[in-house]
Amino acid sequence: MPLRFFNTYSRALEEFHPLDPTGREVKMYTCGPTVYSHAHIGNFRAYLFEDLLQRHLELREFKVHRVMNITDVDDKTILGSRSAGVPLAEFTAPFKQAFFEDLDTLRIERADSFPEATDPRQIAAMIEMIKTLMARDLVYQADDKSVYYRINKFPEYGHLAHFDLSELRSTGRVKSDEYDKEHVGDFALWKAWDEADGPVKWESPWGPGRPGWHIECSAMATQLLGEQLDIHCGGVDNIFPHHEAEIAQTEGCTGKKFVRYWMHCAHLMVDGQKMSKSLGNFYTLRDVLAKGYSGREVRYALMRVHYRAPLNFTWEGMEESREALRRIDDWLARLRAKAEEDNVQRPTPKAFASGASNIQRPTEEGSGFEDALDDDLNISGALGVLFETIRETNRALDLGMLDPNAASSWLQWWQRIDRVLAISGEETAALSAEISAIAEARVQARLAKDWRKSDELRDELAAKGWEARDTKDGQKITRRDGV
Ligand code: AMP
Ligand code: ZN
């Protein structure tokens, strides 16, 4: 079966072919977190869908180049830093760090780069794009000194979200990054400084101000991946206005098609509503871990439903996931025990050999599991194949009809599919509240350039069995015994 994905742009399933002439290199951009608080597990549903996508592409031998942005300046981060009474960078640093820890806990593969919106190189790239758009008369500076996109001059505007601009038309200007289709208007690319922004501002040809959220992604994506991407992902709430605006800005600059495949995951729901910060109906990963669940249990729970189907978060669902993992663990333990037995030649019982011979070996391709994922990441189909395999191999083991060689083959098969699932093995220990607090204090000490305190806190962590390392993605905390 060819690899195919549902493209939001065409609203159709399409065969996947990257732009790269060799057909192997894939450029993928994924919208990342706004670091004004801990990401909630709804956000992680989106990041896990993207992880599943990347891992499956890699299993199919594509080379994936992925970028995920970190939004560390916007209305919410500025508001947070002002209420906490600390500079913006100091306010966002612990949330960035927590985000990377959460990615590790959930076994989400790291993107190749995580550009930050406040990086001066990125700000410069955003300003350059706005200048190009200005030269093409696609954007204008309004009386309030902010720069807006003239959406009526970009006929494609509305295509991704599938609404007709001629009916809705421009209804004025919107400075907010998020607004709805009923009040569609010219969106802001550069927001002129005002008092509420405090010390947060950059110089630009249009006066001091800061970038809008949408231009961040256009600039970072083209800076790091080039003018044309193969895949761009996010949650469905990103379709409008965020991704629509990204298309208008990027294509307005380059004149080329920005993205070949737009892929969006449905929401994680709570009691029929989207899990979100604004509704207050959310759990962070840490909330769920505090209830005794492990990272891989949360990973499984958020990944087991097809990404385009809404998923209701419930504690029963968490229990089901725990039970599913227990079944997998028990099965693997049985297979390992069998594989270690002396592989003495025994005749395979005739009845089994003729009736269910396929269970003695995974078929050539592996195969139903991977085929299901080829079909727009049909994870429920893939897990169906896995549990059917578990049932049948367990039955064969019960009957003494699975020999050690066959058990080894099934273990190899598991190792291959677990490159996508990433759910086997021991749990990476989650950070306790105490260790998190020391780790966060060390981040603060380093930001304040208090190296002595930072070293003391490193020693304190070491005494408790944890190692602090400073990497380009921030501080990393690992168990000293290598767990
Ligand atoms: P934000 O930090 O709000 O920009 O969201 C980061 C990512 O999480 C985006 O791709 C959103 O579309 C996605 N997202 C937010 N809430 C949910 C949810 N309840 N379920 C799934 N994805 C979500
Ligand atoms: Zn984005």
Structure, briefly:
This protein has helices at residues 41-59, 75-84, 88-105, 120-135, 165-168, 213-225, 239-254, 285-290, 295-303, 315-340, 350-355, 368-374, 379-398, 404-421, 433-447, 451-463, and strands spanning 4-7, 12-15, 25-30, 63-68, 139-141, 147-149, 173-174, 186-192, 209-211, 229-235, 259-265, 268-270, 273-274, 311-312, 466-471, 474-479. It has 483 residues and is an alpha/beta fold.
List strands and helices in order, with pairings:
Blueprint: E1 4-7, E2 12-15, E3 25-30, H1 41-59, E4 63-68, H2 75-84, H3 88-105, H4 120-135, E5 139-141, E6 147-149, H5 165-168, E7 173-174, E8 186-192, E9 209-211, H6 213-225, E10 229-235, H7 239-254, E11 259-265, E12 268-270, E13 273-274, H8 285-290, H9 295-303, E14 311-312, H10 315-340, H11 350-355, H12 368-374, H13 379-398, H14 404-421, H15 433-447, H16 451-463, E15 466-471, E16 474-479
Parallel strand pairs: 3-4, 3-10, 7-8, 10-11, 12-14
Antiparallel strand pairs: 1-2, 5-6, 6-8, 8-9, 12-13, 15-16
Bound molecules: adenosine monophosphate and zinc ion.
